[in-house]
Amino acid sequence: MNIAGEMVRILGKDRVLDTKEDRLAYAFDGTMLSGVPDVVVFPQCTEQVQEVMSFANREGIPVFPRGAGTGLSGGSIPDGGIAMVMVDMNKILEIDRENLLCVVEPGVVTETLQTAAESMGLFYPPDPGSLKACTIGGNIAENAGGPRALKYGVTGDYVLGLTVVTPEGKLVQTGGRTVKNVTGFDLTSLLVGSEGMLGVVTRSTLKLLPRPETARTALASFSSVESAAEAVSEIISRGIIPTALELMDDVTIRCVENYVKMGLPLDAGAILLIEVDGPASTVDEHIAKVASACEYARATRIEVARDEDERDRLWKARRSVSAAVVQLNPTKISEDATVPRSKVAHLVRRIKQIARTYDLKIAVFGHAGDGNLHPNILANRRDTGEMKRVEEAVDALFEAALELGGTLSGEHGIGLMKARYLRKEAKETGIQMMRAIKQALDPNNILNPGKMLWG
Has this prediction a pTM greater than 0.85? Predict the structure, then answer.
């Protein structure tokens, strides 16, 4: 069958790629995994998505929805079939100030939406680390989070309604424009975080908030991760829920300082980057309480930004992490384990032990305020012995997270990377329930097959 020819008929020649070179460009995401599609398509409207899905379902051709390809779980990696790239459906269709909502297409870049909302005095809080490139559709598929999730929640907390094309090419509207909606099953929540396996989102209605008046940021250094974790608990026990509460361990600190040379303390066991926002009348009081809590937890140094330039300088440390840590080794395996907030120090200790056991370099950073850590294993993929130890270390890492009452993923999703671990958390009954849902909505298993439930 000439799949490319049929795609040209539906979409037009300029919206279909089928040369080997072009197809290879859509074989990767933010992981080390890859898989080459047979054809790449760029729909421009819901009706085109419906036509592609109807054809693919009728002919039994797998379809792999894709945004910007920044994912860290292999969720958009194709395996032949059709790579459906949604980036050209990139319009902000409406920003409604009166009802505090917006309507957007899936290819809208997250930062673009944030900027548009802020220009109208509004605020779209979800802020994944890849916000300058990642798209709203991908954020919805993975239920993406970010540093601000501690106070404001994750993507799913802002999705009011969806327009979705089913695997069979039918159109479904879920939710709506109201803040409260308990009509029937919560199909919106089912689709958010379903990793492109149950439907293709072509439009979303998202909740907005009034833009915070101001923000203050502090950087606190500690001699140990335990002291930093104590500061996290102390801050929250004093009635402060920071916008962000970010942790960097000693390995990460040294990498960042070597990369940006901003005067980070190389003798620190951990640092916390803490931000509070809200009315100007309360933010100064809250940042003072944050500093006091850090002093109580034996911080060795506390720096509070006095203006926007200093705030940007402090955030530079956190924003530089991903680029900085690869100095240690060229291959970065970015993991995503989440534990209860009180178990953060325990998980970091376990990760340090895993690094020693398997003779690996592991940098630990992440969102300490909500227990979501990102251990980055730094290795060389050409060293087969080392990569075997990496695999064993990842097994040990997830065992530790689950033993501590945690979960396999706080924001990156399962995809291909974690599919073989899912049964450890969801158990057989949970797997069977999810497979039953998949079977009911996608009887021919054409939409993003082979992911998550088949590890």
Answer: yes
